[in-house]
Design brief:
- This protein starts with a strand and ends in a 5-residue tail after the last strand.
- The protein is of the alpha/beta class.
- Strand 3, helix 6 and strand 4 form a beta-alpha-beta unit.
- Helix 1 packs antiparallel against helix 2.
Length: 271
Amino acid sequence: MLKVALSHDIDRVDKSYQYLTKSLAHLYRLEGNGLLNQVKSFCTKKPYWTFDQFIKIEEYYGIRSTVFFLNESIKFDLFSFKSYKLALGRYKINDPKIIQIIRYLDENGWEIGVHGSYNSFKNSNLLSKEKLILEEIVGHPVIGVRQHYLNLDDTTWEIQDRIGFKYDSSWGFTKDIGFKDNRYSPFRPFNNQFKVIPMTLMDSCFMAKPDKWIEFERLLDECEEKEAIMVINFHQHVFSKYDFPGYREAYIELITRALKRDAKFYKLSQV
């Protein structure tokens, strides 16, 4: 039986410096349609607030996914280019609108997880704080985590286990798709209840593949052969049609191709 788990990392809900960087990139490549899309995006109210997109899709197919919310604490530093991407345009987890969408998802069958902030993979106190804040919002334990940028080191899983997470889904590629180090099934690094659920496919990596649908079918074959679970990660902001044309349609196609093989869909806590 083919098993699939859909997930979403919520990195940002507002577009900020991307108005400039995306426009410059299209201008550099002389992409007129891309520039036109940026104009349309600028005229769209909150183009990255696209929760309704994946909610409608998953409701239509009777599926529920796992949604990881970020609580980034890195401060903007004018002289640190890395901080531009990490700090600019980030949302605050205690914003009433964020709390409202988290509670809506939680109360309507979606699973809420922690998208551990950039430095939390090596900081027990920071990750624990992010877990507790999210638990206060939903009013119950939060058991799943995926680290931002899939950051991991030799201490990360020990930290996650110690502070009460039941699973991590950070094991995967940031520039490719498939099963990293041929880890096909959830594994338990400490031989206890804590497990690692490998991530198979991330949106930008998949969409960059010239033969993405051939590779996707190969991965489906691999999952069936190895009795593995395919974990798909589509960031919520990629459902913005002018900034990420084709991503929403690809997400639907991923689901329909899996359903044609009689796939069963899971939330990550059910794996």
